[in-house]
Write a structure and sequence with these properties.
The protein is α/β, with parallel strands linked by helices and 326 residues long. It is 29% helix and 26% strand. The protein is built from 10 helices and 16 strands. It is globular. Keywords: NADP, Oxidoreductase.
């Protein structure tokens, strides 16, 4: 019998249930997939707590890697036995499972050089990092970025990628231990936001100029400091809301703080085009396979421990990437 984590109401981690499920045969456009490893992402908590409303009951998780067991009618992009990985949004919900049916369209063939656990730890984070570094802004060597949650899964990848592009990286962290992790992965400077004024310290490090781009995955608690850290006509990239959603604000504030730009991108819009998705995947897989970017899996959980995994994630106890091992 296959196993899955499901939930029947939005709420705290305790709403997650570990259950037996029946997995049938794939229908048109579907495959039956046996998971080897499953990704744990902060976005999962948004589905669970209702920030991203979805019909309930439902499955949990949007990222995993595994082996195709069977294909349904009309599937041409994969065959039984293929090693694959995937990430997505509504179309891939249900990743917290040992086996499942899933549309074939989101599946990405996994290069032999990339292990299943690595894939589960990096597909969403890697594709997110890829569009942030290659699509959001025309970076040039010498640019400076402020990276919140620098010791997190995306943070560690972005830091390493930024160094490949010749950028200066200022990373924010919550502890000295996380600062060490961030510096080991490319951060030139770290700011412990639990005891330092982020915007003030950024101005000191940039001789009063500010940074070209801020990548802010924290949201409500960092929004103002992020704006105050930007140089004139700098770009604020809101990539998450770990501390809560950003309250409504008067766009005139962007003019007052230096004619700033602001964007709130979503991964789904950067991988909607299959050709662009393939290009981003090839680039990030290439960096990882060549050793230019290291994927740090610092937490491994059993699927039945999903409640504890979500607790750890939301209490910011984790660094790097977290996965469930099947």
């Amino acid at each position: 019998m296959a196993k899955a984590v499901r939930f029947y109401e939005a709420g705290a981690p305790e709403v997650l249930r570990y259950e037996d499920i029946e997995v049938g045969e794939p229908g048109p456009g579907q495959v039956r997939l046996r998971h080897v490893a499953v990704g744990l992402n902060y976005a999962d908590t948004y589905f669970r707590n209702g920030t991203y409303p979805i019909p309930l009951p439902n499955g949990m998780g949007v990222e995993a890697s595994g082996v195709v067991q069977a294909v349904g009618p009309g599937v041409t992009n994969v065959v039984a036995g293929d090693r694959v990985t995937y990430t997505g949004f509504i179309n891939t919900l249900g990743a917290y499972s040992t086996e499942r049916l899933i549309p074939a369209e989101p599946l990405i063939k996994l290069p032999e050089a990339i292990a299943f656990e690595t894939a589960a730890a990096m597909t969403m984070r890697g594709l997110t990092s890829a569009y942030l570094m290659r699509r959001i802004h025309p970076f040039k060597a010498g640019d400076t970025v402020l990276l919140h949650a620098a010791a997190g899964g995306v943070g560690l990848i972005v830091s390493q990628w930024a160094k490949l592009l010749g950028l200066t990286v200022i990373g924010t962290v919550s502890t000295d231990k996380k600062a060490e992790v961030a510096r080991a992965h490319g951060c030139d400077y770290t700011i412990n936001y639990s005891r330092e004024d982020v915007a003030k310290r950024v101005r000191e490090l940039t001789e009063g100029v500010g940074v070209n781009v801020v990548f802010d995955s924290v949201g409500r608690s960092t929004f103002e400091a992020s704006l105050d850290s930007l140089k004139r006509r700098g770009l604020m990239v809101c990539v998450g809301t770990a501390s809560g959603t950003i309250p409504p604000f008067d766009p005139q504030i962007l003019a007052r703080k230096g004619s700033l730009y602001l964007t709130r991108p979503a991964l789904a819009d950067y991988i909607a085009d299959p050709a662009e998705k393939a290009a981003l995947a090839d680039e990030v897989f290439g960096h990882v396979a060549a050793g230019r970017i290291r994927i740090e899996i610092n937490q491994r959980y059993a699927l039945q421990d999903a409640v504890q995994a979500h607790r750890d994630l939301e209490s910011r106890k984790t660094t790097g990437s977290s996965i469930f091992v099947i």
